[in-house]
Amino acid sequence: MKKKKGKKKWIVIGIVVVLIVIMMFSCGTASTTTLYEEVAAQKRDIVTYLEFSGNVEAVNSANVYSDASAKVLEVKVKEGDKVQAGDVIAVLDSSDIEYNIAKSEIALEQSKKSNEYNIRDTQNNLENLEEQIALGLNSSINNAQKSLITAQENYQDAADTYNEAVLKYEADETDAIVSAKKNLLSTQLSYNQSMAQYSDRNPISDEAKAVLDNNLKVAKDNLEDAREDAKEAVEDYYEAFLDAETKLMDAQKDYETTVLSVNQNLESYSNTLEKTIALSDLTTTEMEIERTKESLADYVVYATIDGYITSLNVKVGETISTATPVAEITDLSTMQAKIKIDEYDVADVAVDDAVQIYINALDKTYEGRIASISKKAVSQSDVAYLESVVEFTTAEDISSGLSAEIKLVKSEELGVLALPVDSIRYHEDNTAYVLMYDAEGVEMMQDVTLGVSDGSWVQILGGIEEGDIVLETPSLDYYMEMMVSAPEAE
Fold first, then answer.
1. CB of 52 closer than 8 Å to CB of 341
2. Residue among 393, 351, 348 nearest 371 (CA)
3. Domains of the chain: which residue ranges?
């Protein structure tokens, strides 16, 4: 009983000492009576991280479907099995399709024999028609050709007549015009001679003058009539020319139509032969049989990717459909975890940044990278986040759904001067200093300039040098450990 009281007494005393120490530290005193741990400024690596959490899941997984609806004869795998693309998952009953293939092959051979006769008869009909045309024995073409030749000759005659009439008309030299011109010239001479016989003393009578004038007018009218007749003749020849041209075009069209019709008949015979050959050609049937044979592969279900069978939905004897997955295969070699990057850290993160993924359940760390960062932020508890995906490769000893801690290096200072965080103190203006002993062994405050910190160590940019000894305030855990390990009073 005394022992227990003594122990209790020491515990109380220890607590009081701890409280006193804490009060001394909080007042920032530099009293030499305070206990410290000495620590030397040293070179070390200081790495800071951004930390995230998430759950791992497979990047690549696939549902395997059957390409045929049939009864299951065999199941070759079980859940958890590792498979490769092309491995057999299940075998289905293909007896019905095998029967149809055999029946189609028998029908194919029978069709080949009967089609040979159809091709031979159609070929004979086509050759007979081709020979008739080649020898010029087609009456329709011959008659149309004769009519076309006649129309061509009539057209040429009409064109020549019209062109000659135009030339004479334009030259004012038709027979009637030439005759009228001569008559007008003779009449004009006679008129002039008659008028020359008269003078003022011997004037011509009105009756004689009227006769002369009328004769001259008639001669002129005759010339104009001849010219008008020539013009009308040109127009008539032109009409005849147009009529001959129309008849020629009609004859040409009739000939072309006749030739086209005969050629169409020839083409029809040729098409009939081609159609007969096409219908007799059993390549399509053969291809269909081959395609049906290829579809036998649909009655074997294969793995589509490398991975593990994470779900199996078939049993022997069941009938499966093409709409229901036979199995799910998950590739565990590449995993991912979805994380949220808050708006304050997003500037320090980029796609392809390296990360470390720690799986607590496996006590393993994997190397990975930032695979993607969303371009759209989401809000949660008044903080904006960007959803991101981390990818990493594994040795396939991992399962989907495990929690993970992800670290991304924010800063990395290698081989820099550093001190423990607990050795740093602060003035009222928040500038940093450390406690050191001067040459006489008296505590002194030495101002220091700080750099990055990983929470345990802080970079020293100036104020002290490597190897300098500073006084570090022991933690409360340190004192508690001392009290627990102290001997009990008797």
1. yes
2. 351
3. 118-280
